[in-house]
Amino acid sequence: MSAEKTPRISAIDTTNFARQIVLDFEFAPVPKQRQRRGLRNEIIEVDAVKLDNRGNVIGEFSQFVQTEFTEGVAFPVRELTGISAVDTAMADPLYAVIKRLSDWIGRYSAQVVVGAGRIVDSF
Fold it and tell me: In the chain, which ranges are continuous DSSP H helix?
């Protein structure tokens, strides 16, 4: 990405950390018969954008997550996210995706912000 085309996010205070990590999770509802201990949804995708201390995008992360409690992806979720049952069936389990996300973030002081919507696609 060239400097003039590098997107910036200005609504986040980026002055006190080496990096900003903006996270977004896509969820699928867990069927009632499989819900336990308040589990009503499970993560089916993890997206993130890494910003430098000036708010410039310096990295993107996007991984589907293998479902554990849902079978397939319900039509309304597919319609909204574009994520299919094949995407989640072929994906790694959540613990592996979170480990990969942690490695991608790196060893910097980072402020983590949870966003809404498909943030990686919006840049």
Answer: 75-81, 85-89, 94-105
